[in-house]
Amino acid sequence: MDTWLRSRMHELSDLHGVINLAAWDREVYLPAKAAPARAQQLSTLHALHHERLVDPRLGDALARAGESGDLTPDEQAMVRVLTRERERAVRMPARLVTALAAAQGEGIQAWREAREAKSFARFQPALAALLALRREQADAQGHDGERYDALLEGFEPGMRVQRLTPVLTALRDALIPMVAALASVRRPPPAFLDGRAYDTDRQWRFTMRLLKAVGFDLEAGRQDLSIHPFTNAQHAHDVRLTTRLDAAHPLSALFGTLHEAGHGLYEQGFATEHQRTPLAAVPSMGLHESQSRLWENLVGRGRPFWAHHFPALKEAFPQALADVDLDGFHAGINHVAPSLIRVEADEVTYNLHIVLRYELELALLRDELPVSELPSAWNERMRRYLGLTPPDDTQGVLQDIHWAWGEWGYFPTYALGNLYAASLHAAAVRALPELDAHLERGDTSTLRGWLHAQVHSQGFRLPAEERVRAVTGEGLTDRDFLQYLRAKYGALYGVTLKG
Amino acid sequence: MDTWLRSRMHELSDLHGVINLAAWDREVYLPAKAAPARAQQLSTLHALHHERLVDPRLGDALARAGESGDLTPDEQAMVRVLTRERERAVRMPARLVTALAAAQGEGIQAWREAREAKSFARFQPALAALLALRREQADAQGHDGERYDALLEGFEPGMRVQRLTPVLTALRDALIPMVAALASVRRPPPAFLDGRAYDTDRQWRFTMRLLKAVGFDLEAGRQDLSIHPFTNAQHAHDVRLTTRLDAAHPLSALFGTLHEAGHGLYEQGFATEHQRTPLAAVPSMGLHESQSRLWENLVGRGRPFWAHHFPALKEAFPQALADVDLDGFHAGINHVAPSLIRVEADEVTYNLHIVLRYELELALLRDELPVSELPSAWNERMRRYLGLTPPDDTQGVLQDIHWAWGEWGYFPTYALGNLYAASLHAAAVRALPELDAHLERGDTSTLRGWLHAQVHSQGFRLPAEERVRAVTGEGLTDRDFLQYLRAKYGALYGVTLKG
């Protein structure tokens, strides 16, 4: 690859890293009055990144490189990935970018006011405006008659509605009876979380222990506090996680850290030879989420993991956990109950929250659902899928910020993450029969090494589903996920789960 | 001013802010392994900033604006300041930038090795190479026969050797007998600093108290820890200070914080209408230093300030300060003694360290002193000015990092800072007769408000000396500084000081 193209890749990668630094800092250390200045700085950086990306000379260099025939396979992948990113940017009219930024500002504002007023009506006009702009965007970026595909492509390159809908529909139809069967057992939530205070300094220290336990490299990353936990990578050697500490809800810090550590291990795992190139990237948000969910849920809510760590947790919180044993703790952190709020949902009910949103998003983009009917459609599905009725819109259609940003196409990546996580974990168990024994003695290196080789170090060589197929022999499927739920929750709840 | 030029000013300002963010983060929160990645990111940002600055379209726009005749006085100043910055960048050959960066890397490396070996000889070849490049730079940027002027211009725009040398020479000749007179009193250093431990958490809390006391706005800035304290501003609403905590040396944190707070108040004080323009900047490093020295020394080592704060300090460190009263503390923090290390020098001897360096720098740039003779020239002056002989080069010519970076022309800005601080403070005392009474009751707002109006909010409207002249009625002078020393140390040491 010629040095000019390579240096432009480095420049784009460095700009991306600096944008992430400025965004990270905004959430953790920015002085209150600096918010407008930071917004301007980020806007300038985004504009520079965009200018370099759509530069016609970059287009020519990519075209020449693509035709040259003397690229290595990795270089071909770099050209492919950057060409795709560039074309999406070129096809996005500047006028639309400006209009969307303004509409997002209004959307957030209206959403906040609507939540305040507990009424969707206040949000509806802003949402309709965003929807119109996203339809325009979809048409500008191109699709085969399914606008949603063009938006999905922004988060899950290569995924299509035609492929996704049957999988999520089957998943939904399997989960509804499973949730009902578990709900019929009527087990109360764990008492050890009720009205006790968990010292936040000790929570922090325990999250640091967990980071070390899963092998997050604290010399190539760090953890800080923020209101909403997130992962932000400026480079494979500079991966920043956040968690939050709440004296009344210690699991929020523990599982929040494990979740972000899963993202973080992925970002730290990019290959040295991919650094500062388009291959040092995750192929999709769904695959990114598969790694966070794998460590948070398939490992972090598993008995083997806590067989090793629970004694230290009891030692950290001797009073709160005095009467709790490992099995009680394991049952407690895997309590299943239909609930209204997605971010508080357990791993059995969670995907029903996603399918609900996906179906509504698709109907909106297809003009099959008027924006005004969104709350009733939400509540109707909430009844059908989880048997619940939101008391007001803040606990229903207004609960997530995504639509206030006009972000359609993002929600399904959460479900994809859960499904990919289960498939990758099942493949890991097949490849590493000693895995649980290793976890029981606190050794996560076997699993981490396998994931590093199979997924992390591969970067963006392949699209997400192709990467999963290369590892597991099969692409997107709900089979492994459902098998995992049936085995785990059947045992925990003493019932035979079908579906 | 046309909108294109204005938007380019905003862009340059935003890039500058982001460069500062990345540099700040490198010193306080960067994971160890990320240092090379951060160096690349900073290099990319510097290259982008340089590219935009030397862009011929910017040159044309500035020339047009300068000739247009319909600019406000502030806009004229913006054009003047940016034109000067641009011309210096244009006149800096790219080849020289690259060669300097490489030579700086080698300089730092050789300097570290030389310090390790306690021998200047190891450093000499790298220093000679840097000196040759800086001579080239001076010739490229232009001068009237005095190369040092071209380097000084990088830190102290408008200042010239011809103006500076007589002032520093007179200062030197006044200080040498004053130091000797104070040394003859033979007062031991304060015992309250000997072998006691000052809890570092309490030190931190006291530095936060001091920040609030001087009016540093913690909603438009923050304080963190770093190995070497510094101030770094990304915007007037985002000014970041650092301090360091050492259990054995509590004054390091207290006066370090006061020093950086002085810098910080300046950066926070730029006028709203100057934001994101070349006027939201200090006119020189000397004037910047005047503000840090004013708060650290003229206020922070003064009796009125501690009349208010000493009781709280005693409360914070009751055991260490049990036997110390306000007068003892005031005498202790103003102990004068010739010493070998500049950064540990008191305010009477400090400027002799600077004059020594300035004279050697000037001789090097003028080819009047071979690099090989630098250590002997250093030691000879150290004997003449302070009566001391360094036991080895690490306590002599190798003590500062500045020359290892090839930074000639920076040292005199420290002395300029001390002189400007004294002149500005004398003017403040004339304008605000109640100043000491206000400080005694903990009110710094009178002084801060005056400095804000006279200096901070003026930004880069005028060069440093012209700004000082506009405030005090006189430009650079050693008179106010010497008067301040004579009055303060004459009283503290019970001697009559001449000079």
UniProtKB/TrEMBL annotation, chains A, B:
<feature type="binding site">
    <location>
        <position position="259"/>
    </location>
    <ligand>
        <name>Zn(2+)</name>
    </ligand>
</feature>
<dbReference type="GO" id="GO:0006508">
    <property type="term" value="P:proteolysis"/>
</dbReference>
<feature type="active site" description="Proton donor/acceptor">
    <location>
        <position position="260"/>
    </location>
</feature>
<dbReference type="Pfam" id="PF02074">
    <property type="entry name" value="Peptidase_M32"/>
</dbReference>
<keyword id="KW-0862">Zinc</keyword>
<dbReference type="InterPro" id="IPR001333">
    <property type="entry name" value="Peptidase_M32_Taq"/>
</dbReference>
<comment type="function">
    <text>Broad specificity carboxypetidase that releases amino acids sequentially from the C-terminus, including neutral, aromatic, polar and basic residues.</text>
</comment>
<keyword id="KW-0121">Carboxypeptidase</keyword>
<dbReference type="GO" id="GO:0046872">
    <property type="term" value="F:metal ion binding"/>
</dbReference>
<feature type="binding site">
    <location>
        <position position="263"/>
    </location>
    <ligand>
        <name>Zn(2+)</name>
    </ligand>
</feature>
<dbReference type="GO" id="GO:0004181">
    <property type="term" value="F:metallocarboxypeptidase activity"/>
</dbReference>
<keyword id="KW-0482">Metalloprotease</keyword>
<protein>
    <recommendedName>
        <fullName>Metal-dependent carboxypeptidase</fullName>
        <ecNumber>3.4.17.19</ecNumber>
    </recommendedName>
</protein>
<keyword id="KW-0645">Protease</keyword>
<keyword id="KW-0378">Hydrolase</keyword>
<feature type="binding site">
    <location>
        <position position="289"/>
    </location>
    <ligand>
        <name>Zn(2+)</name>
    </ligand>
</feature>
<keyword id="KW-0479">Metal-binding</keyword>
<comment type="similarity">
    <text>Belongs to the peptidase M32 family.</text>
</comment>
